[in-house]
Write a structure and sequence with these properties.
Elements: E1 4-9, H1 16-29, E2 36-41, H2 47-54, E3 59-63, H3 80-84, E4 88-93, H4 96-101, H5 106-118, E5 122-127, H6 131-135, H7 139-154, E6 163-166, H8 180-197, H9 199-204, E7 206-210, H10 215-222, E8 229-232, H11 239-249
Parallel strand pairs: 1-2, 1-8, 2-3, 3-4, 4-5, 5-6, 6-7, 7-8
Bound molecules: phosphoenolpyruvate.
Residues 9, 167, 172-173, 210-213, 231-235 line the site of phosphoenolpyruvate.
Length: 250
């Protein structure tokens, strides 16, 4: 039986004060919540503060991005071994904002995914189609080709220790949420695609939904057979909202 995971992506939000206070509130509001995996991904500069604030709690630390190389002349970048030193457990790779705004390619995302696994952290691989692609009827081709770029480089077995987040771009930060049925259809296809290569990896892989998940819609989304939790943006910035989403996943 797969556990559910709720991961908060704080994007470029927060201050020292916000991080300390919000993590303290999330800790107390999710106290005793051991039926669900939980993680918060703050900005890079807030990782040390967040590491201290989450120490000894059930909430894991995540990062929003990583460079594929271990070290080198890459100004402004941070490597997987560096993140590992701050107790980071999950690393988001291939978020649509990075694909769109930073021009990240499938190949770069696949390299980042491999770099995260190489130091035994867990990649959260984001895949998802634009509104135009959905309207063209090519959602599944887009999502599966993003997935194949990673499968071809890292193989199927590692998906037992990896997380996939299906995030339709048209539902991120827009106020529109995919219906549970729309999300389940894509999640089911992703799992079948994995199962064609390895049944056990497909069964173990947590596939999250992301795109305007909030307390009001989480239970219905998480009730779908192939939705194993959520990657949560805006709603994860409010401790009570994040805690309610975790409650819906338990
Ligand atoms: C995200 O960017 O990963 C996300 C899902 O954002 P939101 O929940 O705000 O739509």
């Amino acid at each position: 039986m797969r556990r559910k995971l709720v991961a908060g992506n704080w994007k470029m939000h927060g201050s020292r004060r916000f991080v300390e206070q919000t993590l303290q509130s999330i800790r107390s509001e999710t106290e005793g919540q051991d039926a669900v995996d939980m993680a918060i991904c703050p900005t890079l500069v807030h990782l040390p503060l967040a590491e201290a604030a989450l120490s000894g709690s059930q909430i894991a630390l995540g990062a929003q991005n990583v460079h594929a190389a271990t070290e080198g002349a890459f100004t402004g970048e941070v490597s997987a071994p560096m993140l590992k030193e701050f107790s980071v457990r999950y690393v988001i790779v291939g978020h649509s904002e990075r694909r769109q705004l930073n021009g990240e390619t499938d190949e770069q995302v696949a390299k980042k995914f491999a770099a995260v696994l190489a130091v035994k952290m867990i990649p959260i691989l984001c895949v998802g189609e634009s509104l135009q692609q959905r309207e063209q009827g090519i959602t599944h081709q887009v999502v599966l080709s993003q997935l194949d770029a990673v499968l071809d480089r890292s193989g199927i077995e590692v998906f037992s220790q990896a997380v996939i987040a299906y995030e339709p771009i048209w539902a991120i930060g827009t106020g529109i949420t995919a219906t549970p049925e729309q999300a389940q259809e894509v999640h089911g296809n992703i799992r079948r695609h994995l199962a064609e290569r390895d049944g056990a990896a497909a069964e173990n892989c947590q596939i999250l939904y992301g795109g305007r998940v909030k307390a009001a819609n989480a239970a219905e989304l998480f009730g779908q057979p192939d939705i194993d939790g959520g990657l949560v943006g805006g709603a994860s910035l409010k401790a009570d909202e994040f805690a309610s989403i975790c409650e819906s996943a338990s």
